[in-house]
Write a structure and sequence with these properties.
Length: 267
Amino acid sequence: MGRQAAKHRKPRTAAGYKPHPPPWASPPYEREDQPRQKGRAGYGQNADFRAGLSERGIGYAMAVRSDMTVHPHDARPTAPAWSGNGRKPQPRYRHKPSPVSALAMSHGRPAFREVTWRQGSRGPMRSHFLAVRVRPAGVRARRLAQAAATAEHGHWDGVLPDVTLLAEWPEDAQQPTDYWLTGLPAGTPLPELVRLTKIRWRIEHDYRELKHGLGLDHFEGRSWAGWHHHVTLVTAAHAFLTEQRLAPKADTADSPSTRPSTPSKTC
């Protein structure tokens, strides 16, 4: 990342970065066919950021606000009859898009399935979730879709790209509380979608460990070379700790590998 990166907003900088699975990645590390990006609502609301990830073949799971508007997956744009004068009218969705909160509520609580995503310190962590295919609306989303389709096919039929909307409705809540857009394949199982969206706690934990335990924020130099050297060492240290944490437990005193080959005698 060069000096010019400072001039870009975070979503643009992140969209321009294409992560690759490390060559040493193997179980217990997660192995995926595609890199995946997670992010909070500031990124999920950004149509340019989502489009940039999709163009690079990067699946994503991004939080969005409840007022973000979408069209149902089965909605189809139509073009008014052409009068024969002027330019032909462009296909458009004739119904107003709905906020994701209203769309999720319209399915009703019975449509939400209970999913457990991990074991917490106080027991299983579970809630109720709904996954539906939608088409994000908005002026910017429309312009990006039109530009991409025109560049590839020479024309645009007015259809907006579809993604998966994931909504959470806790047992004790009166309505859904959290929403995410995911650019993963349509057939991705609901438990996998939930696992990926809820993994943010792991990201925040790792960042705290990098910052407070390994000194990520201790750099006081003034050069890019020094900064990259510092970050590289901190990242290597964190990778080592992660590998140790995920590795099988060391042999205990009672394990066969630590017992003497011949029995001892007590006099």
